[in-house]
Amino acid sequence: MSGELKLLKPGTYFMMGNIACAEAALIAGCEFYAGYPITPSNEIAEHMSRRMPQLGRHFIQMEDEIGSIVAVCGASAAGVKAMTATSGPGFSLMMETIGLSAMLELPCVIVNVQRAGPSTGIPTFVGQGDLMQARWGSHGDYELVVYAPSTVQEFFDLTIEAFNTSEWLRIPVIVLSDEVVGHMYGRLQVPEYDKIKIINRKRYSGPREEYLPYSSETLVPLFVAAGDGYRIHMTGLTHDERGYPSLEIEDSHKLIERLVMKVRKNAKNLWKYETLYIDDADVVVVTFGITARSTEEAVKRARNEGLKVGMIKLVTLWPFPEDPVRVASQYARRMLVAEINTGQLIHPVREVAECPVAGINYPVGYVPPPEYILDGIRAAV
Known about the structure:
This protein is of the alpha/beta class. It folds into two domains: 11-195, 3-Layer(aba) Sandwich (Rossmann fold), CATH 3.40.50; 274-380, Rossmann fold. 38% of the residues lie in helices and 19% in strands. The protein has a seven-stranded mixed beta sheet, sandwiched between helices. Strands 9-11-10-13-14 form a five-stranded mixed beta sheet, sandwiched between helices. Strands 1-8 form a two-stranded antiparallel sheet.
């Protein structure tokens, strides 16, 4: 890069996960970044603070995480792709405005590089305890999309995917990384630019008097930016198709159903997951993020011992990929859920599984070694 006013060139790199995320955001078209320093996501903001001005784009350090996500929403309302990055405590502070973003249908990307908790926890140690918060952290009925990378390459790819999904559905999208994936160095292959799919939100260009900012004719209304010359009214209150607050039951039903269904109806198109040795597995381990790397090694060792064990790595956490989990559970005698917490992913797995489900939980702050997961597999066989 060396200060050139260009995107990261196609090719092979050895790169930190957080830096790969930042470069992916630039390729995806991010024009605005607002953030506040917090370990272990700091490298994203630091890198963007250098690279955004090089590309003629906008970086701002806000006074806190609340200001950061509000600024991101404002930039999105102005029509540009915007993002922020944080970790657990900052993610908690952003929750009210993430709900506002869902209500106003303002696309944006929030990267959460998870750390140990609760509260301050150990800022430099890993955690996977924000899974449920990513789905249910803000109040009310809404649906988000959450991706979980387990490699540097996935962190890059899923950041671009997050921008595309956000623009397509006009929703906030979360990339739920973790300290180890954020700080590890790994191989990164950047494709030729014409091989990278980039999606931009669909805009309205018809008569001004006919424009409805929250039209219920489609799941995803056409967008106009503030300043384009159209009448726009944005409110966090329940509103009608014009954006004006409404107490009518019909308006409430139309709005909330559409906010939820634009994700639910597209769930199968959003699911991303990987399977290993599923066809003959008596025991299937479901996992995500950095824990998937230890799990894969544990499963391979178990197979070498003659144990019929398979694995499902969830890349999309929400909407939850229920079909592959349910189908695997119809043939397995038991499912295990490996995660760095006391049990979060295990709940949606239990909701759909047709066999007994147990957890392989590891102390927050540390990555479970393959032998630990293998012991859990042996105990379940």
